[in-house]
DNA sequence: TCTCCACAGGAAATTGGGGGTT
DNA sequence: AACCCCCAATTTCCTGTGGAGA
């Protein structure tokens, strides 16, 4: 947006007081900081790239590439790395007469079973718009084999976020063996799975591990030093020279490294810091901007998560909120459940059994809304969880109030909380 | 050391809803 | 209309467990 607005003939530049005319120059090329910007080099991942290359190499020799699994948390460069190598391989294949390569790259996002993933792959390969359905699983697999048979001789299927299928992994067993089992005659098929979940591997069934596991590569989280060099490379292009104070990049790196070691997160933080400086008309990006950016991003993350809660999750959360206002947190599961029952009663919702509410509470804990600690008070209380609110009470009430299914209860809670000076 | 509380949490069965064919 | 497939959420039933106090 700002990059080519430097024409001297631009009439808007002379408009004094136009709110869109920023008076300070922060960004040189903002697009470098966007989510979809792909770096052309990954110096921090040379070793991993090399391993990927070795695994793909057999494809260049006319047989199937090794099956491959990439592990690592989000923002560790897994997707970028595989894209990079696949592109190189594709380029190479284009130059060779005797290597015909088909690469299908997709994300298993939201496909929670083998059946759905299979349907999804069929859709991707066909390029159609809707997934086949209504048939049994084996027919679905057969349909996929039909599609694959139409492809080139060497087929590589890249499946991002493959962990969403959990332990429902039959497709992963079938696919690499399709040729051996006679479902496919002319193709070499290999599968590259990318997983954000490090435990995914342990939950795979033994036969999948057996048939699919040629090699795996783990992407360890970046440390602060690596994040710093990643950020520096980006910042060189993204920012006007000299606008970043010296401690900005190290601080962004440190924050991100403390958390998940995610490059994505570090870059977001840097970007946001720049935007804040810009909005304040500050000429330099400094440490306080970074801290402000971190708070904003953190709050946004929580808000987004909270808005996407299911009704039952909201009930459970509301129960804990209510207990917090009564100043009875941390509360054990039974207390929360009592509160839950009364709330559901008032709202005329579906009342679930305690076992299930426990699961909801756990999941709220995992998402960072609740703090769940285990405790054991022996013969007096046995071992149990204690839940308390981890997020800001006022913000939580604000967000919950947006939902008109539950706002009557929220309003009451707000008035109680106000009376007690809690918000 | 042994007990026993009050849960935690695994596993299997059930429910209900979406999509389909015949 | 009658029936089939798949699946997430839930219920039902159950065994497992860490430590305070006898």
UniProtKB/TrEMBL annotation:
One of its GO terms (molecular function) is ATP binding. GO terms for biological process: cell division; DNA replication. ATP binds at residues 222, 234. Residues 1-20 are annotated as: Disordered. Keywords: ATP-binding, Cell cycle, Cell division, DNA replication, Nucleotide-binding. Gene3D superfamilies: 1.10.8.60, P-loop containing nucleotide triphosphate hydrolases (3.40.50.300), Winged helix-like DNA-binding domain superfamily/Winged helix DNA-binding domain (1.10.10.10). Residues 317-400 form the Cdc6 C-terminal domain. InterPro entries: AAA_22, Cdc6_C, Cdc6_lid, ORC1/CDC6, Orc1/Cdc6_arc, P-loop_NTPase, WH-like_DNA-bd_sf, WH_DNA-bd_sf. Residues 1-11 have a biased composition (Polar residues). Belongs to the CDC6/cdc18 family. NCBIfam families: orc1/cdc6 family replication initiation protein. Involved in regulation of DNA replication. PANTHER family: CELL DIVISION CONTROL PROTEIN 6-RELATED, ORC1-TYPE DNA REPLICATION PROTEIN. This is ORC1-type DNA replication protein. It comes from Haladaptatus litoreus.
């Amino acid at each position: 947006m700002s990059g080519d607005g430097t024409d001297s003939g631009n009439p808007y530049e002379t408009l004094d007081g136009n709110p869109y005319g920023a008076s300070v120059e922060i960004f040189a090329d903002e697009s470098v900081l966007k989510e979809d910007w792909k770096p052309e080099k990954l110096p921090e991942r040379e070793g991993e790239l090399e391993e990927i290359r070795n695994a793909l190499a057999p494809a260049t020799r006319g047989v199937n590439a090794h099956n491959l699994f990439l592990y690592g948390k989000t923002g560790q460069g897994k997707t970028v790395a595989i894209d990079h190598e696949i592109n190189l391989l594709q380029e190479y294949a284009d130059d060779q007469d005797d290597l015909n390569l088909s690469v299908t790259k997709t994300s298993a996002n939201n496909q929670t079973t083998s059946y759905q993933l299979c349907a999804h792959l069929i859709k991707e390969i066909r390029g159609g718009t809707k997934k086949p359905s209504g048939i049994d699983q084996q027919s679905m697999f057969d349909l996929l084999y039909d599609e694959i048979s139409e492809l080139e001789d060497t087929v590589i299927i890249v499946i991002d976020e493959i962990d969403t299928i959990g332990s429902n992994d039959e497709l992963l067993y079938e696919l690499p063996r399709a040729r051996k089992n006679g479902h496919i005659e002319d193709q070499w098929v290999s599968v590259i799975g990318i997983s954000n979940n490090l435990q995914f591997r342990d939950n795979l069934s033994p036969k999948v591990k057996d048939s699919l596991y040629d090699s795996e590569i783990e992407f360890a989280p970046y440390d602060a030093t690596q994040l710093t060099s990643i950020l520096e490379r980006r910042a060189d292009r993204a920012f006007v020279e000299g606008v970043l104070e010296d401690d900005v990049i190290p601080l962004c790196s440190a924050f991100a490294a403390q958390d998940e070691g995610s490059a994505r997160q570090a870059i977001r933080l840097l970007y946001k810091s720049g935007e804040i400086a810009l909005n304040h008309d500050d000429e330099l990006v400094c440490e306080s901007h970074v801290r402000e950016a971190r708070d904003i991003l953190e709050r946004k993350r929580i808000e987004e998560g909270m808005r996407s809660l299911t009704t039952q999750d909201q009930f459970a959360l509301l129960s804990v909120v209510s207990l917090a206002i009564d100043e009875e947190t941390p509360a054990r599961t039974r207390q929360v459940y009592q509160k839950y029952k009364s709330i559901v009663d008032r709202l005329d919702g579906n009342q679930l059994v305690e076992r299930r509410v426990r699961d909801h509470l756990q999941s709220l804990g995992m998402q960072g809304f609740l703090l769940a600690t285990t405790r054991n008070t022996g013969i007096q209380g046995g071992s149990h969880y204690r839940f308390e609110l981890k997020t800001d009470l006022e913000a939580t009430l604000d967000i919950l109030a947006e939902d008109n299914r539950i706002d009557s209860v929220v309003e009451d809670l707000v008035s109680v909380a106000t009376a007690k000076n809690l918000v």
